[in-house]
User: Fold this.
Amino acid sequence: MRIAVTFAACALIWGSTFLAIRFGNEATPPVWGIAITANPISGCADLRVARRCGSFEAEQKARQKAHNDRAALRRKALAQRQRPA
Assistant:
């Protein structure tokens, strides 16, 4: 059963790729097809390199800190607004 599912998945993926290339070549020049295909692949490769080098985690921590700082400022502003005059 597992082999049949794997074969069906491969056939579906390769078949859809063939159709996408066939219709893509009719609608757009081949260079555009290459650019559309290569951009997501290179983006994934860049993300893997960034994660391996550790810069991805550092950026996530910086974004989380900025989010927490904004949330703290928001809470402080709401607390000051709710004080009786």
